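Co-fold these.
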Amino acid sequence: MENKHIIGLVVHNHPGVLLRVTSLISRRGFNIDSLTASPAAVEGYSRMTIRLSGDDDQVEQFINQMMKIVDVKNVEALPDDSSAASELILVKVSTDGYDNNDILAVTSKYHASLVNIGEHSMTFRASGTPEEIDTLVSELKEFGIMEMARTGIAALENGDRCLNVL
Amino acid sequence: MKLNGSEIIAECLLEQGVDTVFGYPGGAVLNIYDALYKYSDRITHILSAHEQGAAHAADGYARTTGKCGVVFATSGPGATNLITGIATAYMDSIPMVAVTGNVTNDLLARDSFQEVDICGISMPVTKHNFIVKDVKDLANVIRKAFKIAMSGRKGPVLIDIPKDVTGAVYDYEPVKPDKIENPLLSDKNDFLYASKLISAAKCPMIYMGGGVVSSDAEKELIALAEKLDCPVASSVMGLGGFPQSHRLYMGTIGMHGGYETGKATDNCDLILTAGARFSDRVAGDRNKFGKDARIIQLDIDKAEINKNVKIDCCLLGDLKDTLRVLTETVEKTERPEWIAQLAEWGKQGEVTETPKSDEYAHPYHVIEAVRALTKDSDIIVTDVGQHQMWVSQKYRFEKPRTWCTSGGLGTMGYGMGAAIGSAVANPDKRVVLFTGDGSFHMNLNELATVCSYDLNVKIIVLNNKVLGMVRQWQKLFYGRRFSQTDPHRKTDFVKVAEAFGIKGLRIHNDDDAESVLAQAFADDKPALIDCRISPDENVLPMIPPGKTVDDLITEME
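Predicted complex below.
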């Protein structure tokens, strides 16, 4: 059955490593929702988080294929029920024809902070699970979203376990 | 000691035991070729006519020796010309290190003359690649490249080196290469489970592939097959990995495999897969492959598990080890009824041969006549197409590393380069290249190389004057509309051979096949034999793509 899966990767921070990972995703036909990359806790390595749609077999194949990239040092599917996953959104909402307080009433529910006010817009920053961000976006659509940028999710497993460099 | 980058490359090759490289010079590799001049007493460089030929030669060298093939090319077109050769090696898991020059560091990323991003281009067809921008990294990158190429599932690695790096001077100290270790990844319980599945099976079969050859696991496979009294089918890539005269050998499996192996696959209750990957040419319908069978897969690459066909049990590690441990774990069995049933299917599947003709020779007849003139250790190379399948069906392979064919990528034009590499690597053996007129036209420029190095290569062009395999599919699936498969070429291959400085002979029909071949094989010189065969000859039997043995085609008009 097709599901959303969150995969954590630790990769050697070499030039071209992002291309190696994305090129493999593309040529093996994997279907991803988002990919984020940033420095890992260990120097010289990057941490990637990939959100993948697919069944369990596809996840197994994804992990096995990723492990074949020389610069990839570890890959794991993070358990859905015991991982902290969140993403950040910046969203510019049109204020034309609406009461600013109505907009603020929505954004405050999601703890979104107001980062800029324009002549015809307000820009908010919020973070949360992809599902929370999706709901925020759908509520703000009522007012008119002028533009938005989402980072894609970053995720860590709960508890003391870490995805270490193998 | 202080050496320049090019000398460091040469020293690192020597560290790895490399004494032969293939390639073609050019502007960005002038420094490297200057070092090759200096090291010519220790490293032999074979100059091809085209970089593609050099890449296939490195591939043929690797397949027939088990060593890592090495190829050099210049930047830009030199590098892109390698790509088909690298992709061919990648698909068949052949170890290779390709070294390309690039423009100097300060000219990179400026669309300079003969600049190309070969790392970007080669990424999907290499195990890994490197661009070395600093001479201090050079030696370690080369060492790493060889290790990657030769460990785990083998494959090609590319090293791109800007020209200034090949000229820059740096400290070099020799380092002994790391021992390649492929740890056994499955534990005792995995083997016990596999053994339990095997004990429960009444009619098992072994489906073997190129991994048996790659891991030099022939003896281990024979031991397992004999202990289990279990018949063996081979993929085209696996040929030579199990002696075909062995009583347990059935034949090739897949699209042009035999009726016997097809029936065995459909009726067996266990398939033991050794170093094979259920490609679409074997498992045409991957959901019906071995439909009543449990499947055990022995492989070194975890990503092959459940990739195409769902399996029940996997044993991961070098086949030599997994086969040995499995053989120790299983109990000796005999299964005369199953073997008899297979023999019965074997008889039913015998293909009736076309009657003799004055106009043409029959490919089977030519292949068998060649077999009569070759030793078990001689090397057979093919191009791609009908001739390749006929050889895979009819030539009797007895020893590993005697077979070079582009199994995965299906590269027409592979044969000439691969034959050159095989001949260079095995001066004591004869190399026979079976090719077709279509494939041969693609890279016949390498006749120049065969002649220059006076290689013991006998080139047999099974010449039907059409692009036979595509034409066969047009007959079957496109209403005999022969779109662009009947090129009406006037090429006289005997004259072509002579023009390149090689003896050219012609087989007109079955009657003169033996005598012409005997003449061609009388010495250790290169020779080309143009062999006229019928354009209406087909490769049979055939399982249509996406189907099973139930849909086997045994006759065609």
